Amino acid sequence: MPIVFAPINTPLKIVRIIADDKTKKHLESLGLSINNSITVLSASGGSVVCRVMDGKLALDHNLSTKIFVA
Amino acid sequence: MKRFALAGNPNCGKTTLFNSLTGSTAHVGNWPGVTVDKRDGVYKKCAEPVAVIDLPGIYSLSPYTPEEVIARNYILDEKPECVINIVDATNLERNLYLTTQILEMDVPMVIALNMMDAVERQGDKIDAKELEKRLGVPVVKISALREQGLAELMDKAFNESQKERHGSTVLSDTALAHLINDVRIALSGQNVNNPLFHAIKLVEGDEIEVAMHKETVPMVEEFKKTFEDDTFGTDFEALVADGRYKYISKYFAPVLTRKNKEKFKMSRSDKADKVLTNRWAGIPIFLLILFCIFHLTFSENFLFISTFADWAHSPLPTLEDLGLLTAEGEPINYGVRWLATIYDGTIYSPGVIVNNIWNDMLVGELFGWIGGLIEGSGMAAWAIGLINNGIIEGLSAVLSFLPPILTLFLFFSILEDSGYMARIAFILDRMFRRFGLSGRSFLPMIMGFGCSVPAMINTRTLADEKERTATVRVIPFFSCGAKLPILTAVAGAVMLHFAKGNGSADLITYAMYILGIVVAIVSVLLMRSTTLKGETPPFIMELPAYHMPQFKNLMAHLWDKTKHFVKKAFTIILASTIVIWVLTHFGFDWHFLDDEQINDSILAGLSRLIQPLFTPLGFGSQLGTFGWVFVLAAVAGLIAKENVISTFATLGACLIAAGVPELNGFTSDVIYADETGIQAVLAMIAATGITVPGLISFIAFNMTTIPCFAAVGTAKSELGDKKRFNWTLVFWIITSYTVGAIVYTIGSWWWTLFIWAAVAAGVTCFIVFYNKGKIKIKLPKRAK
After folding, report:
1. For the whole prediction, is pTM greater than 0.90?
2. Could you tell me if B264 lies within 8 Å of chain A, comparing CB atoms?
3. DSSP for B185-226?
4. Is residue B302 included in any domain, yes or no?
5. Interface predicted TM-score (ipTM)
């Protein structure tokens, strides 16, 4: 499921990212890479704040529908 | 001299380390993307002095934004003798992702494990010795802020720089190892530097790399065909990223022992974010904070105490009521003068108090004394005129605006240093998206409230070219520190002259700030739906942990701002006041003119020539003989916006000397003694008979027109493309002219509102239909 719908405060594994090459590479270098763990801290109105490794990232609505976790 | 480059993730403390090492005061802030250009300094405590180069933060060596390209190219092309890779120990794994890439280059490197104090405060431990063994390069624990471990770091770096290091990769256990090795051998055969690094980037299909090694690409593609992976298919970059992270979590992450095994505990920052980034509360809280900042800086009614007192039917007594003023309205003694800076029937806010002390007690006294000295020195009349009316008046007008600019800047520095800025960008992203920008572009915009120059440079953090162009163009609308004096002087004069002091000048100032923002929004919308169409880039931003603003840091910011300001006052502004004075005191036949003959001067002639152009804006032909002063001030503002008010002061004195009958009540001493510029504007109003809408239109025009020389130069270099820059100039002229005309006509004849609304509706409809393809215009084809 995309992270917008993911349960909050639960560690999840990233399984798929649909984005153009440039964005995907940027996401990877921020730690949003397949097989990595992600925890959604808040998802209000589509925008998502999540914890990846020990950092906190904010993503807009459009992007957060393109990151899939299991 | 040896060069050591500082490389690391954004906001990991590179610039703090740079400042500590070199004794510089480069700008530091708690959000990713503060440093957007490389800068260098010298570290003297090694065996020999070494150059230290601070690079913009990068998350990886595959750049995403223009400022990341700068960092990558520096390490690759300039070949520093050593790379100091700063690793934020509080986010070890993510930071080591970049480390694994630098390891692949043939460059000596040292790891600086920064923010160890924060890690240890949480009770966690990092085994630096073990990490050093596993990485194969020296690791030094440091605290850049507390200046701990710096000597050891630099000694290690110096030591490493004397050796050679060959690239090594963490991918040698993955399925890609074979492919990478083949490409590396092929590249070594072509005598490429850093073959391992380039080989891996080629396998990843990195844009820059593919363009650089065109002849090797077919070979790589050939190799790739023989490869297949179950999870990733042929997505090689994802495969490489996964390989790196797997290695990091398997071999490097275990050096960190956490005191608290439960990984997802809410930190204090998380709790604060629950409120501050809340969908509903976020924006109101932000507006409230903004209001408080303006209130603390400008309000002459601190915490609305005197308003409450009025409600309670016990108004606070003024100094006059207390019998502390003489018959002329002057304070009876020195103590009362000090009291008057804080209180006069109303309590002033801290920003106003600082301003009063600076202007009434310090600058006013000092310049008054110097002026008196020169007056009595027995020099030629024209020399006294030049020094007193030209130079000193110009300088004091500029210097007197230092306090409000610094106060406002201090508050923004606090927001910046605490980590709140990044949150504002996030909560505004949703709103910005409707206008076709991402929340990221908010950061350069708010920097624009300080100064457009660094703000425009900061747009390098924007990944999308069109978003960058649009942002650079609207940055001047975020009224900068130098435009503030124009606002306060004109607003103050409007209140005194037309409302007889019954009204609040700061309301006009707020309103003008808001007007600037509205103009920015409207023009972004227009550009993004016409000439700069394109998808709104995605918003991805790291939210740093909140921390208390560092006193040292805030003071460094203020000191920097002061230095910049004083330098500007004594160079470009001083020079332009002298030029303006000369041009107002010489006629076209190059004869010296007395103050009385100002109307025959070169500047008067030139300004009169273009004056009619400004008639629709309310300060053109309708103003009569002396109407050109407004035109001249606006033109002087193109050099530096500080010139606008100082020009008024110079012209005011000349007009009085010229014996303009409307100026009977004014003396040049009063104008010179008034640092706020209000008296000068009052003199202009009296001499020209300009109306309120004309004045408001004048400030609106100055706010939105072509910014100062420095900002125009920056825009030129940041936009790169010459055509785009020329259009930007056209855009500024058209926008300011339109805004001024709208303000003036609606302010003078309210019913013109309907005409403007109809025009706006028409333009909107046209754009919407045009974009839907319902209207087609044939554009003339350009000759090739």
Report:
1. no
2. yes
3. HHHHHTT-SSHHHHHHHHHHT-HHHHHHTTTTHHHHHHHHHT
4. no
5. 0.95
